[in-house]
């Protein structure tokens, strides 16, 4: 099998790719967590070279909401409107009672045709009815035209840092229904170093909906799990969803790809389903892992089994291709933070 042009974007964790009529839009966590950026390219392999545009910056430090640690933005097209969800905190300090950072989910919208050149409006915090650590919101519009939100949030009565929740939306920044917990970390592989389920992503195929998520700590133990539901089921009923007992995508030491996860889904130019995820190619992290910038965005082709379930394979080796040369990441994977920072 031919190698894919990986990574597709360097030093951007939590990657999100949206295919549009004007090409691919890309966003992800900026390494210093102070802004939201977009880049656009005609092909997935051209995203690394594409110009990056800052469309929003965090509020001044110490000024309250949305002033620190901007994490995991996602851009969506919801009923004709551009929508970005992201997590932000009002401080970099840990909430000692919850043993987490102090993030909540926030929303931006844009009514202009071009999300890069357009004006973005702050819609504020998405009130989930629970004032606890929350992050990684994603969304989809179902066949009935209704929008749903899925996100990760902490319940102090449940062991761990975050569970997965779903709700139907009245508009992109307002829940219409009460949150329903879809899943919590309970399997051994979901509780390595940290007890976490986060980073949900939605993949539709035939008559089913798949929600992948990431679990455990963010080192080589980080891996993807999956929930499955029938498309005509009551998606707000936890009984409609089945969790796969084992990870569906995990580290591969043979190609030095560690901690794959926090994924999204898109399509190739010819319509093949694609997994977008981040990965490191080393495990010995120097200093605070939060500020190690070398989780890069990768792509992988999805195969579909006869029973209609996705097969994600394993992460591919890190190799960058250009028309004239082949560039390979350093053996230890370490790059300095890029000059745009």
TrEMBL record:
Keywords: Glycosidase, Hydrolase, Signal. Pfam families: Glyco_hydro_43 (PF04616). InterPro entries: Alpha-L-arabinofuranosidase, Glyco_hydro_43, Glyco_hydro_beta-prop_sf. Belongs to the glycosyl hydrolase 43 family. This is Family 43 glycosylhydrolase.
């Amino acid at each position: 099998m031919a190698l894919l042009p990986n990574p597709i974007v360097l030093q951007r964790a939590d990657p999100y790719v949206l295919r549009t009529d004007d090409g691919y839009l890309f966003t992800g966590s900026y390494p210093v967590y102070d802004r939201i950026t977009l880049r656009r390219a005609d092909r997935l392999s051209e995203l690394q070279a594409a110009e990056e545009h800052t469309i929003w910056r965090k509020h001044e430090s110490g000024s309250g909401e949305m002033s620190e640690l901007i994490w995991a933005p996602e851009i969506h097209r919801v009923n004709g409107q551009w929508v970005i969800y992201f997590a932000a905190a009002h401080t970099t300090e840990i909430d000692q009672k919850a043993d987490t950072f102090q993030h909540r989910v926030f929303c931006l919208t844009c009514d202009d045709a071009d999300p890069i050149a357009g004006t973005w409006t702050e819609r504020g915090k998405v009130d989930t009815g629970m004032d606890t650590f929350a992050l990684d919101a994603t969304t989809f519009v179902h066949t009935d035209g209704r929008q749903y939100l899925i996100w990760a949030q902490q319940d102090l009565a449940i062991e761990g840092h975050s569970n997965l929740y779903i709700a139907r939306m009245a508009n992109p920044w307002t829940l219409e229904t009460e949150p329903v917990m879809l899943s919590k970390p309970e399997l051994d592989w979901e509780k390595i170093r940290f007890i976490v389920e986060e980073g949900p992503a939605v993949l539709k195929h035939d008559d089913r909906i798949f929600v992948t998520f990431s679990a455990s700590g963010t080192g080589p133990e980080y891996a993807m799990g999956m929930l499955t539901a029938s498309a005509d089921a009551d998606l707000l009923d936890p009984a409609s969803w089945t969790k796969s007992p084992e990870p569906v995508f995990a580290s591969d030491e043979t190609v030095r790809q560690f901690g794959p996860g926090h994924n999204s889904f898109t399509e190739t130019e010819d319509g093949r389903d694609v997994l977008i995820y981040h990965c490191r190619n080393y495990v010995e992290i120097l200093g605070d892992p939060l500020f190690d910038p070398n989780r890069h965005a990768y792509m992988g082709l999805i195969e579909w089994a006869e029973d209609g379930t996705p097969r994600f394979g394993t992460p591919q080796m890190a190799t960058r291709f250009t028309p004239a040369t082949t560039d390979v990441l350093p053996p230890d994977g370490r790059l300095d933070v890029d000059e745009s920072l």
